[in-house]
């Protein structure tokens, strides 16, 4: 395998629309890197430039020790798994798997052995004599992965490969793909993977590291735990996590003292002790962020709690989503089912208090996290 480097990569189309804005990214040898972001953020465009399916307007793409900007896809040492599987409908699974090797005129015994090895790894031996139309979505996706795997490329590219599957099958395929990546590493054949998705659950459960993109820019690159606990900016904080982070306008006061405070919808709370000493901000408008899991329901009248009105209640089994309106802001608090007061109804007044240093303060204009250093 090989590491992959993107240096100042740009993509500008003929109509002068700039889709990718000079991004820099290094994917380590054997790493599972996920590109994630909302529709239109240019994650698939970036992947297609790596594959050679889109031309690069500016910058350099390096795979291993080679600059590949001007190489055709077949010469880049990559294999790609597409969203729609892209299997040849007239070929049986056996021939779909071996097609790339047959094009390279590899010896027949080598092709047969490789087909046997890959079908065994992906547990599709019983499918080898079927046509694609006879496969389920999950089976077709495993065949598509096998066709990429059999060529032993330097880099694997996945373009939203699970988006056509139902929720249960997506969860199953997430596990299969990550298990395959670990197995290859354990066998001394580490696979460098770049995986594109708009689903942050896929990103968080599959990636060694995650590259969060927005409007052709990279917002943050980090491991899943860091993205969740230390979002670099309000966009990452709001995009990563389910339910999404509560974000609202606030005013910071006494930032230079030992007792800074935040005012939200006319209510003032002290900044938690674990955050206050390291808050890198000045008095004025900010964006307050707190994850639903980091809000606790407390008694009315409890200090440093925000009071609002229950607008909806969602029972999720092991937890309850409590939707609370605080001024003009909609908050969600995740309450463990065993501690939830089942007498609570819509229209009730409730108090929510941020848990310790888990509260975030973001710059109102730039969006960057002013409280990063405080999170341990």
Automatic annotation (TrEMBL):
Keyword field: ATP-binding, Nucleotide-binding, Plasmid, Transport
Pfam families the UniProt entry points to: ABC_tran, TOBE_2
SUPFAM superfamilies cross-referenced by the UniProt entry: MOP-like, P-loop containing nucleoside triphosphate hydrolases
InterPro entries: AAA+_ATPase (IPR003593), ABC_transporter-like_ATP-bd (IPR003439), ABC_transporter-like_CS (IPR017871), ABC_transpr_MalK-like (IPR015855), ABC_transpr_MalK/UgpC-like (IPR047641), Mo/tungstate-bd_C_term_dom (IPR008995), NA-bd_OB-fold (IPR012340), P-loop_NTPase (IPR027417)
Domain ABC transporter, first and last residues per copy: 4-240
Top-level taxon of the source organism: Bacteria
Entry's Gene Ontology cellular component terms: ATP-binding cassette (ABC) transporter complex, substrate-binding subunit-containing; maltose transport complex
GO MF annotations, alphabetized: ABC-type maltose transporter activity; ATP binding; ATP hydrolysis activity
Family according to the record: Belongs to the ABC transporter superfamily.
The protein's name: sn-glycerol-3-phosphate ABC transporter ATP-binding protein UgpC
Organism encoding this protein: Qingshengfaniella alkalisoli
Phylogenetic lineage: Bacteria, Pseudomonadati, Pseudomonadota, Alphaproteobacteria, Rhodobacterales
């Amino acid at each position: 395998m090989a590491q992959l480097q993107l240096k100042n990569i740009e993509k500008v189309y003929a109509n002068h629309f700039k889709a990718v804005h000079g991004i820099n990214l290094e994917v380590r040898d054997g790493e599972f890197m996920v590109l994630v972001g909302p529709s239109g953020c240019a994650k698939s465009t970036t992947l297609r430039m790596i594959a050679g399916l889109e031309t690069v307007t500016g910058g350099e793409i390096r795979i291993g020790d080679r600059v590949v900007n001007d190489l055709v896809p077949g010469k880049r040492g990559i294999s790609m798994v597409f969203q729609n599987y892209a299997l040849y409908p007239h070929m049986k699974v056996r021939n779909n798997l071996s097609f790339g090797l047959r094009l390279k005129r590899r010896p027949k015994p080598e092709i047969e052995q490789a087909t046997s090895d890959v079908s065994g790894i992906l547990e599709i031996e019983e499918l080898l004599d079927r046509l694609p139309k006879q496969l389920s979505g999950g089976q077709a996706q495993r065949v598509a992965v096998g066709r990429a795997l059999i060529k032993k490329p330097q880099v694997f590219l996945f373009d939203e490969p699970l988006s056509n599957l139902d929720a249960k099958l997506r969860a199953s395929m997430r596990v299969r793909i990550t298990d395959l990546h670990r197995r290859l590493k354990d066998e001394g054949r580490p696979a460098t993977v770049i995986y594109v998705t708009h689903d942050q659950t896929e990103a968080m459960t599959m990636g060694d590291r995650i590259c969060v993109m927005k409007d052709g820019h990279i917002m943050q690159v980090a491991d899943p735990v860091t993205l969740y606990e230390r979002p670099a900016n309000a966009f990452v904080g709001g995009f990563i996590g389910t339910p999404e982070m509560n974000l609202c306008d606030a005013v910071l006061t006494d930032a230079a003292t030992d007792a800074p405070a935040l005012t939200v919808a006319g209510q003032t709370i002290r900044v938690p002790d674990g955050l206050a000493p390291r808050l890198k901000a000045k008095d004025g408008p900010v964006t307050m962020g707190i994850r639903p899991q980091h809000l606790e329901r407390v008694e009315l009248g409890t200090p440093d709690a925000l009071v609002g009105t229950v607008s909806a209640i969602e029972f999720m089994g092991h937890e309850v989503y409590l939707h609370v309106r605080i001024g003009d802001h909609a908050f969600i608090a995740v309450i463990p089912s065993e501690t939830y007061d089942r007498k609570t109804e819509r229209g009730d007044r409730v108090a929510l208090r941020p848990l310790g240093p888990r509260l975030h303060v973001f710059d109102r204009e730039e969006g960057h996290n002013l409280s990063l250093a405080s999170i341990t």
